[in-house]
Amino acid sequence: MARRDRSTGRNTIGDLSDPALISTLTGWLERSGASALEITTPDGGVLKIALDAGARLEEIAEPAPAIPARPEGRAVKAPMAGLFRDRHPAAPETGPLAGEGRALEAGAVVGFVEVGPVLLPVTAPDAGVVGEIRTRTGDLIGYGDPVLTMEPSP
Amino acid sequence: MIEIVATGPLNTVQDLGRPGYRNIGVTACGAMDTLALTIGNILVGNAPDAAGIEVQTFPFRVRFSDRGAFALTGADCRATLDGVPLPPWWMAQARPGQMLELSPPLKDARAYLSLAGGVDVAPVMGSRSTSLRGGFGGVDGRVLAAGDRIATGAAADGFLPKDGFGVVPPAVALKDVFPLAEGGALVIRALPAGEHDLFGVDAERFWSQQWKISARSDRTGYRLSGDPIHPTEVVEMRSHGVVPGVIQVPPAGEPIVQMSDANTAGGYPKIAGVIEADLWRLGQARIGSLLRFVPATHAEAKVVETALAAYIADVRKTARLVRQALAAMA
Amino acid sequence: MSIRYAAPAAIVPDTDGQARISFIGTRAFLIEAPGAFDLPNQRRVWALSHALETRPDVAEIVPGMTNLLVILKETPDMPEVVVRDLQEEWRRARSVDLAGREIEIAVTYGGEHADDLPALCDLSGLSDREVVRIHHEGTYRVFALGSAPGFGYLHGLDPRIHMPRKTVPSLHMARGCVTIGGMQTGIAVLTGPNGWNSIGFAELQMFDPLAASPAVMAPGDTVRFRPERIEL
């Protein structure tokens, strides 16, 4: 388990304002392959946002073929690499924000990408109905990976 | 600039407080949940000492006069911006004319509205915190009222994501460090204080029973109800300085925990003092909820403080990283 | 050079017992002087306060009535070492007298704000004129500030007019009331609930949050009350 334990109080993230680190990260995000989820800082610190990175990488490395080209479906994509959450971590008892068949407004939050302690929203670009869920909660996803597909409202 | 459209009776401008003047009788005040305010300031890129609005009574509605970023932290108030729900512990951008509405939280007690640039009121004795008792600080030393227009300072440069972002709330991220007792009582760690041993067997009953936060509780202090405890002898107490978290026992035997607006001096026998790192949780405890006090040591408190500081540092660094990365992609 | 030793009677012994040191939370340490509630003990507290002010680990010092609350910047790793250091500081603390200012306060004794004067007469067996005379003839020292912004605890009240605090506070005592609480006297700085006993009224504003020096009184100041009017 490579994910850091916050309760130990040990901060394993180095100085993230370091330009070299930012550049590394940005490059990684642009490639969006999510193949470099461990970021080593110049001082030897490591940012790890992966659960069991090796195994997960294989899953997400199976790329496009897994996405059926349903012409009417439009993918809702992850804004950044991290762990997908289908609901807010403070409300585990609620159901997923976007279940299959649910109608959503444009801009609705369908889930979150967890990057360390930070949560980024995954938002529906247009109004529509949730088609296929492509990512399970807890999965490691890369930038631009489809989280789910949306179909136009009937 | 925002305009307060509706507010409950006890909402005030608060920052991290006005310490350093207890020696002239000035209460520190400050947010009841300084952790939530700290995270809110990080989310909108403010300096740590920026002031926000502590919302503890509802409804609370504000209208944004200008475009601006804001963050909501602390109690989950099921906030909506022009009717669109916002996640808790979240930063978002408002457009001119948009209305932010907070509803009564289902758990926890206080929400914090942080505005990019911070609430721009004149600091008094180094702080923008409202001192209701002293009648200074915040907005004219008073609670907020409908119609108040609140100016903000200059927002920091830097990219804030259009769709907003948030944090894993500390109750989740730090759940191993801040556990709940069985039955949901809040576990509050405390060090025995000066008159602890005077309570004899009643001291054990202080630690062993669950206390309920009575309705006569506010930012000044929490009066606890339970099985009364009494010292075995009456001692002459000379007035001395106190800090928030001190647990005093007046003659009736039901303890009072002093909070952010605590008097600077006290004279009742004190049985214990809450560790500083647990005060933010106490600040979120609701009237009617249950507390259990657990004896702690300095070393144990230090572990909790370290975990808390690490969470804040982690949020600060990761938020900056994420903002920079999103800016690079935008 | 000759060294002159003070007369033995003026030496504050350093063997008169240890201070009592207790915790309030993890960062605050309360140091309580052993012995009487008197000026010599308070002078030693002032000396201790002065000695601790410059310590880099100290965030705040709050002198009380023959006691001192020290608030550290951080939770110490070894609180027992802090306690030992504070005990040593107390042992070393010699009586100092603060070069305070002299403050004269004009008072209307009796009148609409002197709600508790009759009760004090009953308690003391003195007439109202005697109570007023004894109060305004006294010379008081500001022992410490606290409880409310700028409120000075004044020591030196004649024992004949000591009066215990009320068990049920007055709900709306006015700012400016001249009050007696136990063996101390003071002037209410805020309108609100107050457990002290009011015998008069002073117009002086004791606190201005916007002033460079917000509190009128400071520890060590000498205070006298001038009877401007007596309404009995």
UniProtKB/TrEMBL annotation, chain A:
* InterPro entries (UniProt xref): Biotin_lipoyl, Single_hybrid_motif
Q: Which SUPFAM superfamilies does the protein's record reference?
A: Single hybrid motif (SSF51230)
The lineage's top-level taxon is Bacteria
| Domain Lipoyl-binding stretches | 76-150
- Membrane-spanning ranges: none
Name of this protein: Acetyl-CoA carboxylase biotin carboxyl carrier protein
Where does this protein come from, organism-wise?
Shinella granuli
TrEMBL record, chain B:
Keyword Oxidoreductase listed: no
Entry GO MF terms: ATP binding; hydrolase activity
Alphabetized, the UniProt keywords read: ATP-binding, Hydrolase, Nucleotide-binding
Q: Which PANTHER family match?
A: 5-OXOPROLINASE SUBUNIT C
Outline the extent of the Carboxyltransferase domain. 23-311
Stated name of the protein? Allophanate hydrolase
Record bears the keyword ATP-binding = yes
Q: Which domain of life is it from?
A: Bacteria
Q: Which SUPFAM superfamilies match?
A: Cyclophilin-like
Q: Which InterPro entries match?
A: CT_A_B, Cyclophilin-like_dom_sf, PxpC
| One Pfam family named in its UniProt record | CT_A_B
From TrEMBL, chain C:
What UniProt keywords apply to this chain's record, in alphabetical order?
A: ATP-binding, Hydrolase, Nucleotide-binding
> What InterPro entries does this protein map onto?
CT_C_D (IPR003833), Cyclophilin-like_dom_sf (IPR029000), PxpB (IPR010016)
**One MF term in GO for this entry?**
hydrolase activity
Q: Which Pfam families match?
A: CT_C_D (PF02682)
Q: Where is the Carboxyltransferase domain?
A: 19-217
Does the keyword Hydrolase feature in the UniProt annotation? yes
Q: Which NCBIfam families match?
A: 5-oxoprolinase subunit PxpB
Its protein name is KipI family sensor histidine kinase inhibitor
What species is given as this protein's source? Shinella granuli
- Print the organism lineage: Bacteria, Pseudomonadati, Pseudomonadota, Alphaproteobacteria, Hyphomicrobiales
